[in-house]
Amino acid sequence: MFKKIIKFLYLKVKYKSKNLKIKSVNIPIKSVFGHSNTIESGVYIDGLFEIGDFSYINKNTFLSNVKIGKFTSISSNCSIGGSEHPTDYFTTHPILFNSYYGAKKIIENNPKETLIGNDVWIGHGAILKQGIIISDGAVIAAGAVVTKNVPCYEIWAGIPAKKIKTRPICKLPYGVKEWWNIDIKRIQAWDEY
């Protein structure tokens, strides 16, 4: 627990100028943060982690080897990029491939990176398989189990998750397509959506 607190304090000091709100102590020290991120209590991050400006993660969410874009909203109780077990052995239990159990043959643990784009909304309790891509503007419904890549601006729901519709793409001023790369004051000045 002492190591977790030291890591927590280190991250708070390292990113002090970025206006972060970190309430979780389960964050790897090599994590990369953007500006104005919020990481709520009970969030557990394993492996590589990067999060873009103004994105947030709500309570009790697990993430493993995840890269998140800007302005992305992740609800509570989600599982993103969790580990997998081999299904071609006689057992899926890690006793055969994990050194913790004294396994002689250790399986290379090369977890796949899960990519979550910009302006994505992931609903409460969603599960995202490791190695998939959730593209810009996508919405994942509460409770969805996503096992495939999700294209831009699509809304997916269900078990397994499937496309239910496409989000309307608003006409952005000045011919802008990637609004998340514009200065925040200019974004806040827009009066039409």
UniProtKB/TrEMBL annotation:
PANTHER family: ACETYLTRANSFERASE, ACETYLTRANSFERASE RV3034C-RELATED
Family, per entry: Belongs to the transferase hexapeptide repeat family.
Gene3D superfamilies the UniProt entry points to: Hexapeptide repeat proteins
One Pfam family hit: Hexapep
UniProt gene name: capH
InterPro entries xrefs: Hexapep, Trans_hexapeptide_repeat, Trimer_LpxA-like_sf
Native source organism of the sequence: Aliivibrio sifiae
Identification of the protein by name: O-acetyltransferase
Coiled-coil residue spans: none
